[in-house]
Design brief:
heterodimer, A: Rossmann fold, OB fold (Dihydrolipoamide Acetyltransferase, E2P), six-stranded mixed beta sheet, 9 helices, B: about 290 residues, mainly alpha, MetI-like fold, two-stranded antiparallel ribbon, 13 helices, binds adenosine-5'-triphosphate, binds magnesium ion
């Protein structure tokens, strides 16, 4: 069991309000990702759920019990820190066994649980090493091992992959998703990387300046962003956000169209302009174009599309997939 | 210093300093060594002659020597015990945020700036004096018999004074070590269900081990040669109860004018210091690696 409910949770440091007021429902077994730009309060929110930070207002309910004032250890949650926070003078075994030892469990029970966790995480050969003798990815797995042995109600991850290189990050993403399917435990995952959010989440919570902009499944957020912020944040490359006369034609203040929803042609189309920088990714090509009367528009097309810098180009947006936003930034 | 060229240059540049330091050390050492084989008493000028190991024989078979050796070790050990434990506790307190933290930290460091002679005098006359001292006054106001510190527990009194002087040093080193403990590690331990005491044992203490080693090594070097505090307070007495090796050598040289005997004592002290250092490094030096 691991359902978590936030009721009117708020936080201020002194006079600066970091989180004005948040209501959120997290169901048992869900993989929830908090995503948002740097400094928007993701870590603060996670630490409040963990009990490492006091609430300024509101309640946190875990499995139906009000845990707002409980000590971190009493909440039954495990956390994986960005810096891993392994205990440097203990072996991998000691690190993973530590929460069990603190819980006063028997030696034989501890041994079995540590070995099991090490097996799941491919750490069996490293149990006698110290954290200083491990690679980044292995340390990450030890941190996860330390979190899973307690069999917590929920896991909290604070940007666990941001210290790893791109290839390893991709691997660990899969491993964590895999772990979630194995354990079926609630997971709350903080990241500022929207790719991590899209690929791992059952439910994404987009935060901006301490407020929730939108909650939904990855595809919901992709298909129907509620406002300009979410539209610009979710999806890669970013959605083109067009203002001015072209937007007014569609009775909107801001017109959004994703790079993959624009047809590109060298001969004819609704918008005309010139090719700017072209990025070849092999499978895809991102073409940054300068469109007359609109400005910069990015288009995504297949890998073989060949263009030259400065070449005239024509674009046609997919009319069914236009996003229209009003003056308040909300979708119309 | 990657290339041969830069290494050679570096050697030439360093040599004046190295040579100076070497001379600084070797000249007094050789002279002491030389004196230690002479009959050299200032009361009998003109009778200097080589007497082999006689000075050493006298010094090492002197019953005072073993008392002095024991006193030296007790003094070092006792002071280390008080400063390390006290230093850890003080550092833990000073690491907490509280009002007036800056002032309190300054006050804690203050004893380190007081000269040994001055602090020993203050302790002797203002704190531990059996009639006028603060401790005696406190004891009397509770209706107790005041302790005559330097008569009843002379060595312990000296340890107390020396420990008071070195406590700031230990506190300072341990405090900086404590401040470098990663905050997320503490939080992780908190989430893992470790209480304050467990966190101290499993997290803080191992983290401090290196700093504690440094404190022990450095203090040992200085504590082996405590002198001013003894001279000012007890003069090595009563009897020879507070005479350490340093003080014994002083008595030999300046009270009995026996330069040869004192030199032999000095060499013995050097050897002893090296033995202590050797065992210390063996015992705790591996903490410094890693
Ligand atoms: N102890 C503190 N005292 C004052 N302000 C704080 C404190 N901790 C965080 N803040 C502020 O709260 C805001 C949110 O911080 P938080 O660490 O939650 O951001 P974040 O979303 O995790 O950002 P990042 O992606 O960079 O980690 C920031 O503006 C930060 O300056
Ligand atoms: Mg953060």
């Amino acid at each position: 069991m691991g359902s978590i409910t936030l009721e009117k949770v708020s936080k201020s440091f002194g006079t600066t309000s970091v989180i004005p007021e948040i209501d959120l429902e997290i169901h048992d077994g869900e993989f929830v990702v908090f995503v948002g730009p740097s400094g928007c309060g993701k870590s603060t929110l996670l630490r409040m759920i963990a009990g490492l930070e006091d609430l300024s207002g509101g309640r946190i309910i875990i499995d139906g019990k009000d845990m707002s004032k409980e000590a971190p250890a009493k909440r039954g949650l495990s956390m994986v820190f960005q810096s891993y926070a392994l205990y440097p003078h203990m072996t991998v075994y000691g690190n993973i066994a530590f929460p069990l030892k603190m819980d006063g469990q028997e030696k034989s029970v501890i041994d079995k649980k540590v070995k099991d966790a090490a097996h799941i995480l491919n750490l069996t050969n490293y149990l006698e090493r110290r954290p200083g003798q491990l690679s980044g990815g292995q340390r990450q797995r030890v941190a996860i091992g330390r979190a899973i042995v307690r069999q917590p109600k929920a896991f909290l991850f604070d940007e666990p992959l941001s210290n790893l290189d791109a290839a390893l990050r991709g691997n660990m993403r899969l491993e964590i998703s895999d772990l979630h399917h194995q354990l079926k435990t609630t997971m709350i995952y903080v990241t500022h990387d929207q790719v991590e959010a899209m690929t791992m989440a059952d439910k994404i919570v987009v935060l901006n300046a301490g407020r929730i902009e939108q909650v939904g499944s990855p595809m919901e957020l992709y298909r129907s962003p509620k406002n300009v912020f979410v539209a610009g944040f979710i999806g890669s490359p970013r959605m083109n956000l067009i203002e001015g006369a072209e937007a007014a034609k569609h009775k909107a203040t801001t017109l959004g169209v994703r790079p993959e929803h624009i047809r590109i042609s060298t001969t004819e189309g609704a918008w005309s302009g010139k090719v700017g920088v072209t990025e070849h990714l092999g499978s895809d090509t991102f073409i940054h174009t300068q469109i007359d009367g609109i400005g910069q528009v990015t288009v995504r097309t297949d890998g073989d599309f060949d263009t030259k810098h400065g070449q005239p180009i024509f674009l046609t947006p997919d009319a069914a997939r236009l996003h229209r936003f009003g003056a308040d930034g909300q979708v119309i | 210093m990657a290339t041969l060229q830069t290494r050679a240059t570096a050697r030439i540049m360093m040599s004046p300093a190295v040579i100076l330091l070497f001379l600084w050390m070797i000249v007094p050492l050789v002279m002491t060594l030389y004196f230690s084989f002479l009959r050299y008493n200032l009361l009998m000028p003109g009778t200097e002659e080589n007497i082999g190991f006689l000075n050493y024989q006298y010094f090492l078979t002197d019953p005072a020597f073993f008392t002095a050796l024991a006193n030296t070790l007790i003094l070092v050990g006792g002071t280390l015990l008080i400063t390390v434990i006290g230093g850890i506790l003080l550092a833990l307190v000073l690491d907490q945020p509280f009002f007036g933290q800056g002032i309190v930290r300054l006050l804690v460091i203050a004893p380190f700036f007081v000269m040994p002679t001055v602090s020993a005098l203050v302790w002797k006359n203002m704190l531990m004096h059996p009639v006028n001292g603060l401790f005696a006054w406190i004891a009397r106001s509770f209706g107790l018999q005041p302790v005559d510190w330097f008569a009843q527990v002379p060595l312990f009194s000296i340890i107390l004074i020396v420990a008071w002087q070195w406590l700031p040093f230990a506190t300072l080193i341990l405090l900086t070590a404590l401040q470098s403990l990663d905050g997320e590690q503490k939080e992780a331990a908190e989430m893992d269900g470790a209480g304050a005491i467990s966190r101290f044992i499993y997290l803080v203490l191992p983290h401090l081990s290196r700093a504690i080693t440094v404190v022990i090594l450095i203090q040992t070097i200085f504590l082996l040669s405590v002198f001013a505090e003894i001279l000012v307070t007890t003069n090595g007495g009563p009897g020879i109860q507070t005479t350490n090796i340093t003080y014994l050598i002083y008595m030999q040289a300046l009270l009995q004018f026996d330069v040869g005997g004192a030199s032999a004592g000095g060499i013995v002290a050097v050897v002893l210091a090296n033995i202590v250092a050797f065992f210390l490094i063996r015992l705790i030096g591996k903490n410094l690696e890693r």
